[in-house]
């Protein structure tokens, strides 16, 4: 019997990307509660409409990103995932810097 899901090479990247996306949602929500500003216009309008819906959408995308880890992807898409991981790493680093700066 064939497995429905197979572990792909990019699963670890997708798991990392999903966790960073969830962390971004929580950090962003925390910073917006302290008077920060969301730079993404789409997410900003969603947050202004309802913060809970903002978090639900972000966590839904986290789920989708992790689910992609079980789907075979072409090499070019895997490269884009690695690039997205790098971008999210920079974003989370920025969140940490801002949070440390706000604590002082």
Automatic annotation (TrEMBL):
Key words of the record: Membrane, Transmembrane, Transmembrane helix
Residue ranges constituting the DUF5658 domain according to the UniProt record: 17-101
Residues that span the membrane, as ranges: 49-73, 80-102
InterPro entries: DUF5658
Name of this chain's protein: DUF5658 domain-containing protein
Organism for this UniProt entry: Fictibacillus nanhaiensis
């Amino acid at each position: 019997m064939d497995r429905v899901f197979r572990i792909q090479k990019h699963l670890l990247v997708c798991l990392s990307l999903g966790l960073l996306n969830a962390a971004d949602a929580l950090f962003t929500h925390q910073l917006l509660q302290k008077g920060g500003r969301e730079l993404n216009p789409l997410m900003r309008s969603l947050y202004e409409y309802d913060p809970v819906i903002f978090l639900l959408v972000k966590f839904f995308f986290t789920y989708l990103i992790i689910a992609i880890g079980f789907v075979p992807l072409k090499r070019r898409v895997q490269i884009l995932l690695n690039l997205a991981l790098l971008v999210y790493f920079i974003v989370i680093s920025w969140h940490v810097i801002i949070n440390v700066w706000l604590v002082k």
